[in-house]
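Q: I'm writing up a methods section and want to include an example of the input and output format. Could you take the sequence below and give the corresponding predicted structure tokens, formatted cleanly so I can copy it straight into the document?
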Amino acid sequence: MDDTSGTEKPCPQTEWMIAVRDRRDRTAFARLFDHYGPRLKAVAMRGGASAAEAEDIVQDVMLTIWHKAHHFDPGRAQVSAWIYRIARNRQIDLFRRRARPEPEEIVGEERNADDAAEAVALDQEAARLRAALARLNLDQRHMIEKAYLGEMTHVEIQEETGLPLGTIKSRLRLGLQRLRHELKELRKA
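A: Here is the clean output for your methods example:
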């Protein structure tokens, strides 16, 4: 307690969250990610999520925190309570999706796989994707290639590269955002 003002100094996590909310501070966000990421994963796994599902929940929660930071009010809730509530809601959503029955496969009329027009369209789309990937930052492109083309988990990428999970996830998120933008621009052309 600060004797001169009569108010308590906020905890570091609250200060980081306020920096994210007010200044979109990436360093503060990385600290939040490093602090809460492992804790959120452990909570999700104790709640019944697999390791992969828990990582997805953490990624989704942290992305939500970044996008909804303007909603954080330290006067209404502690940062930890706010973050864990978001995580709890994501886990509930996961379990609801899991409980839904799979729709039956709809068998339609058989299509000719050698349809020339479809093959050309797929080749053009693949070429656009390769061109968009080539324009990415090298670090982001490597992360996307490992995660999506190499089908590696974030932990496997971490073990291979030695990079922190937060860095890996940030590069993936930023790379995917840029890819979406690049591909949207290509579709307009």
